[in-house]
Design brief:
With 220 residues, the chain is mainly alpha-helical. The chain contains ten helices and four strands; from the N terminus they run ααββαααββααααα. It has a two-stranded antiparallel ribbon with strand order 1-2. It starts with a helix and ends with a helix.
């Protein structure tokens, strides 16, 4: 399951308008990066190192066991053809990732599609959540990691890292200046990979942290 990408989009849809709360050009890139983060957490991709005989940092596909979920399939297929720099992979995938995600979430009954008639909306559809159970847990985990300094789960750490890279946490939070200073400092710690030392980690978590760092640079 594309846990990181799905939860990120659900968080962005969790508002009164039921429309994504981040500007389109940023949203498309950060969702594409989230799908790549999901593949990294599944140990299906990683950044190349010098021993691979490739330009270090290019994302390469791995022969990891397990099926790829419908949302991640196009990203995995792209990288199986040839390695891509993170910035190029994000750019290629950003054109279709949001559509794939909304379709998958609708098909699995997590959101509904409603066509809007009013011209005051920038997008012709709204996607209200069918249940707040999953997004509520994701939001609680994000707030606990940021404000209570609890060790973030891999999914939460990835979401914070990617949103921090595009200065997108404002799409989820409304804070005063003091609150933002705290959030930016804590989000910066998590984005730097400190969460790996806070959370019980194994190879998938380490691979996610390394890949998220490369994606973070691609987004900035």
């Amino acid at each position: 399951m594309a846990q990181i990408a799905e939860e990120l989009l659900l968080l962005l849809l969790d508002n009164a308008s039921a429309q994504p709360a981040l500007e389109r050009h940023l949203r498309e890139r950060v969702l594409a990066a989230a799908v790549l983060a999901d593949l990294a957490y599944a140990c299906k991709i990683r950044p190349a190192v010098a021993e691979d005989g490739l330009e270090p940092g290019r994302l390469i596909a791995l022969s990891a066991p397990g099926l790829t979920d419908p949302v991640s399939e196009s990203a995995f297929t792209l990288l199986r053809r040839r390695p891509f720099r993170p910035v190029a992979a994000v750019k290629r995938l950003s054109k279709r990732t949001e559509g794939d995600l909304t379709h998958h979430l609708e098909q699995t009954g997590q959101i509904r599609r409603i066509r809007l008639q009013s011209k005051r909306f920038t997008h012709p559809y709204a996607w209200p959540l069918t249940s707040r159970g999953r997004v509520g847990q994701a939001r609680s985990a994000l707030l606990a990691a940021l404000f209570d300094r609890r060790p973030p789960t891999p999914s939460t750490a990835a979401i914070i890292t990617l949103l921090h890279a595009v200065d997108g946490l404002g799409a989820l939070l409304s804070l005063n200046d003091r609150g933002w200073r705290w959030v930016h400092a804590r989000a910066g710690e998590i984005a730097s990979g400190s969460w790996v030392d806070e959370y019980p980690t194994a190879l998938p978590e380490v691979n996610l942290a390394v890949t998220a760092s490369a994606l973070r640079q691609a987004l900035t």
